[in-house]
Design goal:
Blueprint lengths: L11 H9 L6 E3 L3 E8 L7 E6 L5 E8 L2 H5 L5 H4 L4 H18 L8 E8 H4 L2 H4 L3 E9 L5 E7 L4 H5 L8 H9 L1 E14 H5 L6 E4 L7 E5 L3 E8 L2 E9 L4 H18 L8 E14 H6 L5 E2 L11 E6 L2 E11 L2 E9 L6
Antiparallel strand pairs: 1-2, 2-6, 3-4, 3-5, 4-7, 6-7, 8-10, 8-13, 9-17, 10-11, 11-12, 12-14, 13-15, 15-16, 16-17
Length: 348
């Protein structure tokens, strides 16, 4: 299946709220370990911690509070005693702890780097940035064993970016988070490349002939990061293929729209020689990220597509915006869209 990071397109605070719904629950990790976290007070400014940095540059702070030396290393030592040692020995032991913890975590977490040696929390970030952090008390360890205890501080709007580098969808809890989060999709009947002048001058009553011989048999589902080509089969709708969509396409469409608008005003471009891509859509809706990511080429997908008839509204989208709507009409052997409303600032 095409690899797409819809998590990065989600409202960061929505991701934060969904993640918080798992606070104070034991989350099983790779069937051998458990992770538990809960909202916590910030540690002392003098507590020893380090900066965690993801591959994308997102950061969080880590303050270790306890490490099971006896269970992990068979050494009768307390973590509080480690912090009292002279710098060289302390730093060496802390590096050993971090290395041991990496071995205990899923391999994905090797992408996160810990900046050592430890420093006082007040020295890790400017005071203004420290005030923006929310803190969690975290417990992680083998099921039934002694856990590692720590505090992690992260900005709510940075959590999705920090975890976005980790393919956590294999973990049931993280998949459930994605089931709570939605993204927008559009159901497209067909597309066309039309003269810009014609598109900008659409009026109520105009007819636009659709070049779609298999109208109603095929449909395209457009998401923010992907395009899914569906075909109607006996069992329902099947996914033929999936294409990644350039994340800059929306910005490009908006820029093109502004350029066309400017050209109309100053008359510097012959609009009759320009064309614009137009989509004819039958629906726009929300779908869970987990559902959209589960669609695979060659499989059936669970989607409800509106029946096509004269009552079905069809929307015209150009330059990223819906500019008109209408209804399908039959003209001899062809199908056309009769425009019934145009966007004049009142919406469709």
């Amino acid at each position: 299946m095409t690899s797409l990071n819809y998590q990065s397109k989600t409202d960061p605070l929505a991701y934060w709220n969904a993640a918080l719904s798992y606070a104070e629950q034991d989350i099983t990790v790779e069937s051998t370990h458990t992770l538990n976290f809960q909202v916590s007070e910030a540690p002392s400014a003098f507590a020893q911690g380090s900066v965690l940095r993801s591959a994308s540059g997102a950061t969080a702070l880590l303050v270790l509070e306890d490490f099971p030396f006896a269970a992990q290393l068979n050494v009768p030592l307390a973590y509080a005693d480690v912090l009292e040692l002279e710098d060289g020995l302390r730093n060496a032991l802390v590096e050993g702890i971090v290395s041991n913890l990496r071995n205990e975590l899923p391999a994905d977490f090797t992408k996160i780097q810990s900046e050592l040696p430890l420093q006082a929390v007040s020295a890790l970030l400017p005071a203004r940035e420290l005030e923006q952090l929310s803190w969690f008390a975290v417990r992680y360890g083998e099921i039934g064993g002694a856990p590692v205890l720590a505090k992690v501080g992260v900005r709510p709007d940075a959590l999705s970016g920090f975890l976005g580098d980790l393919p956590l969808t294999a973990q049931p809890a993280w998949r459930a988070v994605r089931e709570q989060l939605n993204t927008s999709i559009c159901l497209t009947l067909c597309e066309a490349s039309l003269p810009t002048a014609e598109v900008s001058s659409l009026r109520i009553g105009d007819l636009v002939v659709l070049d779609a011989p298999a109208l109603g048999q095929r449909i395209t589902v457009d998401g923010p990061l992907s395009r899914h080509y569906l075909v109607l089969v006996e069992q329902g709708w099947g996914c033929e293929r999936i294409e990644s969509v350039n994340g800059m396409s929306e910005l490009t469409e908006e820029a093109n729209a502004e350029q066309v608008s400017d050209a109309e005003e100053i008359g510097s471009i012959d609009l009759s020689q320009m064309t614009v891509p137009v989509r004819f859509e039958v629906d726009e809706r929300e779908i869970s990220i987990a559902e959209l990511e589960s669609w695979a080429a060659g499989s059936l997908v669970n989607i409800d597509v509106p029946a096509l008839n004269e009552e079905t509204p069809v929307y015209v989208r150009a330059a990223g915006k819906r500019i008109a709507k209408g209804h399908l009409v039959q003209i001899d052997e062809r199908v056309a869209l009769r425009i019934s409303k145009t966007d004049r600032g009142t919406g469709l």
